[in-house]
Every structure is written in C-alpha cells, then in structure tokens.
C-alpha cells in the first residue's frame, strides 16, 4: 500500500560496523552518526565539529531520511526481511531491480553476496531461496515456473560473462531488447536453467572465482566494475490459463568514490576506469530522475537509457512499471564523511523520485 502511494522506487541506507582491523584507540575514528528515529528507523544524522582559524568551534549537521535506515548492528536477516516482499514479486510477473550503491569498502558486496555462514548470507542467495520457495508454494494453485539466470560484469563499458566458459574479456556481447515481449537478451552469454538454491550458490561461487581471476590481472578490478545477477522467471497456470514473465536483477555497483580518493590522478587505466564508473553511475541517476519527471505527467519525457551499458542493460527493469530498490551502503569512518555525504545526496535525489506504478507482466493465455 505504502509502496503504491510512494511510487515504485525505494531507498534503504545501511551503515556497516567498524571492522576489527579498523578498531583503534583513536576516538575520532568514527564519524558522528545518529539514528534519532527509534520507531520507524527512517532517519540518519551525520555531524562534524571543526575549529576555524580563530579557534571558534563550529558544528555542522546533515539530516537525511529514507524508507529505512539500518544501523551498523543490523543483521543480513533484518535487511532481507525488508527486501523479501519486493524480491518475491518477480513471481507475480514484476521486473524488480535491487542496487547496492556506495564507496569502496562500504559493504555493497557484503550486503548483496554476503559471507559463507548462514548468518552472513547476503541478499542474492536469500532472494533466490525465497523465489524458489514461493514458486513451490504456488504449485498448489496451479502455477508451474521455469527459471533461468545469468551473471554479468560491466567493466569499462564492456560486458563480461561471469558464468561463461570462455576466456575472460575476449567475446563481444551486445544488448538486445525485444520490444514485443519486453525481454532483454545479451548475445553470447551463458543463460543457465536454475533448479535449486544450492545450484545457484555454486553458480555464484563460480562467478566469483572468475571475477577473482580477472581481478589478479587488474588490481582490485571487482570493486571497479558493476556485477548484475539476473533471474528470469516464467510462470504458467494450467488451471486459470494465466501466464507471467518476471525478472529479478540484483546489482552490486562499482565503488562510487570520486576521482581524488581513488588515487587515479596519474594512472591512465585508473583514470579511465573511474571516468567510466562516474559516467554509468550518473547515467543511473539521470535515468531515475527522468523517470521521476515522466511520472509527474511529462508523458513524452525521453529517458536516457543509452547513456551507459548499465542503464541500457536494465532498461526494461528500470521503467515506470518495474520495482526498484537502492541500498545505500555507508562507511562508519570519520575519514569517509565527505564521501558518505556525497552518497547520501545521490540517494536522496533517487529517494525523492516517484516513477509511476509498477505493472505486472502477465496475460491470459488466449488473449493476444
Ligand atoms: N554489515 C557488515 N557486517 C560485518 N562486516 C561487514 C559488513 N559490511 C561490510 N563488512 C566488511 O567490510 C569489508 C568491506 O565490505 P565490502 O567488500 O562488502 O565492500 P564493497 O562496498 O563491496 O567494496 P568494493 O567497492 O571495494 O567492492 C569486508 O571485509 C566486509 O566483510
Ligand atoms: Mg564489492
């Protein structure tokens, strides 16, 4: 209900804990972050005290609010609880997109992929498990589902197949949209039939190992590329004659930090990477903003999907009739305060967007 009123884009904010390796006796290590809203958990306040040249202390405070703010001690299960409804709506025929946005080291991969224990399992495996469970439950109502998955990496505006068998970086992959069915395909990539959550886990591990191999060729490449896991689900109901076609896209975005921080200054490859990341992240922001204007009644508004591979790939899942969630990941460190503020401003722009009402993609078997 709330989702309908607000439109179909939501933003969560998650602050990661200080890591054991970061703990020190320096009490200025932590940024001053408060969570004043104990009831709805929607607010976050950052502050910083500084002294000017005259020795006069000044305190700056920045307040933001989102659909949900998760404090450092929140668990993967708690975050997933808020995402599960959205994830499972792909079984009803919705196109769903979940993005993790934030600077390097802010917890995007931890949130999306997570660790190897049950407690640390991330959103991707949890969502997959949920979809399988719902599909199983709907069998009793006559639904039969078929699922397939792919996992891609977008690095320097080039697509790589993380589930492919061939050599990395060698094949050229093009994005194709079928206007009639609203389906997006990428040429020459592995699309794997999905039949159990455990099989999906091994696929994810395989994708991870391919990424790691590529990463040794190019230092820390994984955090400099976007990864997009797509689950497509087709359902047919023999009892009612209905069918549906939905998708779930789970995206671990490249680090959002600005040029100066990444030390890209004199390194040409690093510079190019950073420019490509900035370009695609701002393209994402622009697409969402354009959808917002369109939602406000500017029906013929042009949506600039083609400005980046990321937005072009997700075109059909990033439109007025899909469901989108952005999880903004933040570092708790004082040294990252400025970067956190940039992220919070980007997310606020996204959060203030209303992009129409999500539509299911289902139809009766005999209607055209
Ligand atoms: N909520 C959390 N609880 C415990 N540890 C966390 C949490 N979030 C992140 N971490 C840890 O913090 C470190 C950095 O997190 P992670 O690798 O997820 O960052 P990232 O945003 O994916 O960075 P990059 O852009 O470089 O890929 C990792 O060691 C991760 O295990
Ligand atoms: Mg990562």
From TrEMBL:
One GO BP: microtubule-based movement
Q: Where is the Kinesin motor domain?
A: 8-353
Gene3D superfamilies for this protein: Kinesin motor domain
The reply to whether Transport figures as a keyword in the UniProt entry is no
Protein name, per record: Kinesin-like protein
Q: Which family does the record assign?
A: Belongs to the TRAFAC class myosin-kinesin ATPase superfamily. Kinesin family. KIN-14 subfamily.
Listed Pfam families: Kinesin
Q: Where does ATP bind?
A: 102-109
Enumerate the UniProt keywords alphabetically.
ATP-binding, Microtubule, Motor protein, Nucleotide-binding
Q: Does the keyword ATP-binding apply?
A: yes
Return the PANTHER family for the record.
KINESIN-LIKE PROTEIN KLP-3, PROTEIN CLARET SEGREGATIONAL
Q: Name one GO molecular function term.
A: microtubule motor activity
Q: Name one GO cellular component term.
A: microtubule
Natural source organism: Cerrena zonata
